[in-house]
Amino acid sequence: MVSSEYERRIAGRFATFDQDGNGYISREDFAAAAKALLTEFDTPARSDKGQALYTGAEAFWQGMAGMADRDGDQRITREEFVGGAVKRLRDNPERFGEIARPFLHAALAVAGADADGAAAVEDTVRVLTCLGVPGQAARAVAAALDADTDGRVLETDVVPAFARYFTVPE
Ligand code: CA
Ligand code: CA
Known about the structure:
By secondary structure, this protein is mostly helical. It has helices at residues 5-17, 27-40, 48-68, 78-91, 93-110, 121-130, 135-145, 155-167, and strands at 24-25, 76-77, 118-120, 152-154. One calcium ion (CA) binds next to strand 2.
């Protein structure tokens, strides 16, 4: 079995997706991430933003399952994640951005992004932290995105950065 440093790091990302820590990634983990975001930003689930977030979470889950759930049991095991998702994400990081985009768009809206999709750096850090990105990495990602240091980051930058975090770990 070939086990590169890259694959070991990607395996570490598995834990980020497995929000409830039960050893596999499922729809419930994505719902849990949505719930955590709504709690963090004190947003009702029944609001338009709350519903958009759950819709985005479901689409994100479906996209991930399509890439990685090889036996179709609605669970992505660690083995499926490392063996299937890693290769596909590495070959096509744009695809990952695509499936994550509706969820991230909704998450930034919950975090108070304006009509142009620009959110405050601090709120972006809170979003990334809710999604399981460790605090220090979340701050580094958000700070790097605010290249002109005006305190705002753009959704168009957040999506590829999020994809990079999961596909090309530092
Ligand atoms: Ca889980
Ligand atoms: Ca499976």
